[in-house]
Description:
A: 351 residues, 75% helix, 1% strand, B: 343 residues, Rossmann fold, 6-stranded parallel beta sheet
Amino acid sequence: MSDTLVRPSAEAADKSRAARLLGQALRSREIAVFAVLVLLLVVATIANPRFLVGSDGWRDLLVTPSILLLLAVGQTAVIITRNVDLSVGSTVGLTAYAVGKIFVEFPGIPVVVVFVIGALIGAVLGLINGALVAFGRVPALVVTLGTMYIYRGVFLEWAGSDRINAGDLPGRFLSLGTKQVLTIPVLTIIALVVLAVVGFYLRSMRSGREFYAIGSDPAAARLYGLPVTRRVLGAFILCGALAGLAGVFYAARYGTVSSGAGRNLELESVAAAVIGGVAIFGGTGTVWGAGIGAFLLVTIDRVLPLLGISDFWQRAVVGALIIAAVALDRVLSLRRERQLKQARDEARNAS
Amino acid sequence: MKLHTRRIASLASVTLIAGLGLAACGDDSGSGSDSGGSGDSASITMLPKNLGNPYFDASTTGAETAAGEFGGELEEVGPETATPDSQVSFINTAAQQGVDSLIVSANDPTAICDALNEARDAGVKVVTFDSDTDTECRDIFVNQADAAGIAKAQVDLIAEQIGDKGKIAILSAAANATNQNAWIKLMEEDLAANHPNIELVDTVYGDDDDQKSFDQTSALLSRNPDLAGIVSPTTVGIAAAARYLSSSEYKGKVALTGLGTPDQMRAYIKDGTVTEFALWNPTDLGYLSAYVANALASEEITGEEGDTFEAGDLGEYTVGADGEVLLGEPFVFNAENIDDFSF
């Protein structure tokens, strides 16, 4: 997203290499958000060294964002196609509870199988969303708002006042919530692998690039003969499957699943994507940005209380970040538009 | 134009599906009762908030034990979901059957009032337990615990676990939760008056959300690494804090207590994260409620303040102001007794 059609003018060529690099870095949303994250970590560590160096501190720093990271990746794939999935929070809750029930019924079931089942349940729920959006041609906002309530309703009906307790889950599953390999938590490793795979797919595979084309102009994509229906369906299935996986993570990490599990996660996943530079109207943004956005959101939630900032301000800061991210997008796109116009005019005058 | 109508059609179908879903939720069936009628022994109908709830299963077990002791007939009925209006039909049925007394845990303090008063006009004595109605709709409310008792039990537990000195923090529910705030205020007063060496350094709010309570515990500990103990006067909070502690470097170093349920806390009692926590005992609550119902039915008491009666193993009770009977001190759960409970 950083290359433009602007021809380097004589002025620009004079600029030092460092200034150009800095300019590029500022234009790259991923790096900008990452810089904010690093700054936040530095401040938090100065305020309280245990935040980073304590054995719990390091682990929590990495493992806490893993659930939102998965959701942000799925959400990004959907948003890029100019859709949105508001049902992911309900999907997380429903699969987390299903995972608990599976362990109650079949205590000896291998953990890997449970991960696969969780992802499959999510994929089916995502397929329902995708089918309604792709075939019914109903706006995704409306469809997934509806399924958000329906999935939550099914969950409430199923769970009632019952809940999954840590005692219902086997120790080998719960220990995954804190297990570390070379000090990196296992859940974080899985989430990062997912991020890398989806990131590669969207960036380098032909079908992945079609997601962007569809989001930039759905009508043109259709006219051009791109398989719009199949890609949109694919995006929703991916998003659902990752939400299902996030549900398994939730059960392993928190150990208790009641009917409120996963509430509000859908909005946080959209927020993470937007902060990470994914345009809400589709067509631009990367899962890398969304992933860093997810890390930033979760870490802010943990750092602000550490600095003694009250609950209300924590939410306000997140809101300000979202608005700042959108405003930055707007400023940058206006500037680029101006530069392009200028380049065009210069080209005209020259000829 | 064609696209337009299709869109409306699909919207309509979504609405329809949603409507069907809602209709399915409204279905509240439950077990009806057909025995009844007053004989020599007191006939009592027990109406919890909903069936299939382990907490109320425990209270019904207690009530059945009591009925066995005084030779009464006890029957449990109830809705499947704890919605405000779902109890009305069960109250009407009990009134028509002419049972001697009705024990109810109200899903709503006012919604079932009319039905209860009709039943009382028909001669049914009404006892509420666990969750009260407005005072004019029942004869006696069996209160599981009062604020002072709950606050004192928690302060005593934490003081004992940390050797009566050190820094403690509170992990509460929402910042505006009435119950929790009342308890916290009483705990602060108790600490100031009776435990000068314990310092309350922080109060954080987990909003009764597992995830938030868990993350707040993590923040609390990194902010106060020299913390001696945490008190969480909410069942969600204490379970989340226990889960965090059980997998952290603070396990066994930071004491944790508060109000929890045995099912949620069993794993953490067994692995040594938590030694003792408190809650009222729902079995005792049901037991006492059945004795109250029997005393009312046999006209041993009328529900006036100062009436006294015997409640089997629990001893003698006196009716307090507003027709309330207080169960007593909260019950303390630990490794020895936790397996006796399932709720």
